[in-house]
């Protein structure tokens, strides 16, 4: 299953899967901190649902590890 950017990102009118903006998602992608999207065509970019799940799981693990060391 694939997820489009408008489904991922939140804005002031709609809540997406993640509580971050489109701009922040692209910043994180460029910084190598967010999964790279799949390009389906000139105007179609998406992410694999499994990649997003793994990203969220890694954030959860990092948060749990930081809680243990604090």
Textual characterization of the structure:
The chain has 70 residues and is of the alpha+beta class. It has helices at 5-8, 22-30, 49-69; strands spanning 2-4, 38-41, 44-48. The chain has a three-stranded antiparallel β-sheet with strand order 1-3-2.
Quick gist of this model?
The protein has three helices and three strands; from the N terminus they run E-H-H-E-E-H. It is an alpha+beta fold and 70 residues long.
User: What overall geometry do the principal axes of the alpha carbons give?
Assistant: globular
**In terms of structural class, how would the helical and strand content be classed?**
alpha+beta
Distance between the termini: 37 Å
Binned, the helix content reads 40-55%
Largest sheet: 3 strands, antiparallel
Primary descriptors:
single chain, 70 residues, 17% strand, globular, alpha+beta, 3 helices, 3 strands, 3-stranded antiparallel sheet
